[in-house]
Amino acid sequence: MKPSIILYKALPDDLLQRLQDHFNVTRVENLKPETVQQHAEVFASAQGLLGSSETVDSALLEKMPALRATSTISVGYDNFDVDALNARKILLMHTPTVLTETVADTMMALVLSSARRVVEVAERVKAGEWKSGIGADWFGIDVHHKTMGIIGMGRIGLALAQRAHFGFGMPILYNARRHHAEAEERFQARYCDLDTLLKESDFVCLVLPLTEETHHLIGKKQFELMKKSAIFINAGRGPVVDEAALIEALQSGEIHAAGLDVFEKEPVAVDSPLLSLPNVVALPHIGSATHETRYNMAACAVDNLIDALNGKVEKNCVNPQILR
Ligand code: 8YV
Predict the structure, then answer these.
(1) CA-nearest residue, atom 9 of ligand 1
(2) 287-293: long-range contacts at Cβ-Cβ below 8 A with a sequence spacing of 24 or more?
(3) For 255-302, how does the pLDDT look when each residue is reduced to its tens digit (9 = 90+)?
């Protein structure tokens, strides 16, 4: 008999078929307590779980005593209680490589659109404001040859550095838990402590996962260290930034502008001051959201679950040590 699994995200037909070739699949809308209660028996016998953007905590795991592997269609796994998974010897699989280039493209889009005010001026054109030659009130600031500071030199940080260095001639500063030889050799990136990076960068680009250590890493003091002309970009996780401090820094002119793909609470509240500030480009967490990459992420997550339930954890596994 095929193992039972719960799918809590829509999949393209061919990927659903691949999943069904291996497993007995029950599709649910979400992992909310009402849903779990409604399908209590299936949850109690499921060995696998596949989807994204839902909380997986000990309350849920208690309802899933047969669970052996979870597979998230994302690189980030801050919505999983990893300690609780480890304690129950449940594998956690994720999709770290397939989205790298797409997220780096999104970050570069935020850099360009916030510096050159692309969204704002395009709206003005649509509103019929382009009546004669443009004056300084339409101007932006240059991106090329400015200094980019990258906080978090993982795969996405490297892909961003590549674009900025080779495409835009930008000197790269970076801060990370360790020195990164590849970044230093390929892009002449210079390692700095966080304060130095904040003081010297024209673009401060944040691409960190959310952990206890990174929560509110960037707050009032860090915005004060940045140049008044600095543009702040966040495409990692919203709660790494103290959003109230960010709003204040943007309103007071402590920093020049921001390009944001992530927020402390998503979707961002429609009455958030971030949405009425002209110097903010706000995106709805589209980092990896292209047809190609979302397909590749889903395919990777399907294969990850098949692998995990066969005990194969050489790649894409957050906690392979639990099998040892
Ligand atoms: C997705 C992401 O938006 O992979 C991640 O960690 O943040 C994004 O690619 C999200 O997880 C929905 O699948």
Answers:
(1) 288
(2) 287/99, 287/102, 287/103, 287/106, 287/107, 287/235, 287/261, 287/262, 288/74, 288/75, 288/99, 288/102, 288/103, 288/106, 289/102, 290/102, 292/102, 293/98, 293/99, 293/102
(3) 999 999 999 999 999 999 999 999 999 999 999 999 999 999 999 999
